[in-house]
Amino acid sequence: MEFNIDQLIYWQYDFFKINATLLFSWVVVLLLPAASWLMSRNLTSGPDISRKQALLESVVTVIVDQIEESTRQKAETYLPFIGTLFLFIVVSNVINVVPGVHPPTASLSTTAALAFCVFVAVPVFGIARKGFIPYFRRYIQPTPLMLPFNIIGELSRTLALAIRLFGNIMSGSLIVAILLSLTPLIFPVVMQLFGILIGVIQAYVFAILALVYIASATSIQDRNISSEPSNPNTETT
């Protein structure tokens, strides 16, 4: 039984290796656009839509609602990044229900890469919305003496993102593998179903935390996303 899926080598030539983390990350990367293409073909409008279109619209609607509730901003700017992040993680987490498949998120290298994406996205969105100097001014608030502590805070929360996701998924996979070796019937099936639930929850937590970090970097004021009139006195009666 391997505790680290990075050590599961499927093919190697000299120093170049294809391990379980790399292989199943590619599988998820190819699976997501293929599924999106299949589900988005022949889209229609009106009440008579197919089940797959209804499922696709429901997923997008849920993600848009979560983005707007968390950031209090329009979702269009953040939907491509957060949507991709959430879907990649949730598929990576639950893909291990297929026998012989290992979740890429059970590797610290995968979760660290995802956390690094969030680490880079936060200043990118922050600078795009607030500007270069106003964004970096937050690091010297309330006093310039807080600069090293604010930088340490940014790094520590990125590390926490990676460790949290890796720990939960790796431990879940390990428990299922142990139970499967001890009691190969009913109990592992229950644990697999429980693992799917945990995988979806962990993907949701990761995406929400990324949204909170982005919202803290992009918030200028508490601007309501609803389109309120700029001057109520101009309303016509």
UniProtKB/TrEMBL annotation:
Record InterPro entries: Alt_ATP_synth_F0_Asu (IPR017692), ATP_syn_F0_a_bact/chloroplast (IPR045082), ATP_synth_F0_asu (IPR000568), ATP_synth_F0_asu_AS (IPR023011), F0_ATP_A_sf (IPR035908)
Q: Does the keyword Transmembrane helix apply?
A: yes
For this protein, what is any one GO molecular function term?
proton-transporting ATP synthase activity, rotational mechanism
Q: Which family does it belong to?
A: Belongs to the ATPase A chain family.
- Record's Gene Ontology CC terms? plasma membrane; proton-transporting ATP synthase complex
Q: How does it sit in the membrane?
A: Multi-pass membrane protein
Organism equals Rhodohalobacter mucosus
Instruction: List, in alphabetical order, the GO biological process terms annotated in this UniProt record.
Output: proton motive force-driven plasma membrane ATP synthesis
Q: Where is it chiefly localized?
A: membrane
Membrane-crossing ranges are 20-39, 78-98, 110-128, 165-187, 193-215
> Which named protein is this?
ATP synthase subunit a
Kindly name one Pfam family recorded for this protein. Answer: ATP-synt_A
Q: Which keywords label this protein? A: ATP synthesis, Cell membrane, CF(0), Hydrogen ion transport, Ion transport, Membrane, Transmembrane, Transmembrane helix, Transport
Return the Gene3D superfamilies for the record.
ATP synthase, F0 complex, subunit A
Q: Where in the cell is it found?
A: Cell membrane; Membrane
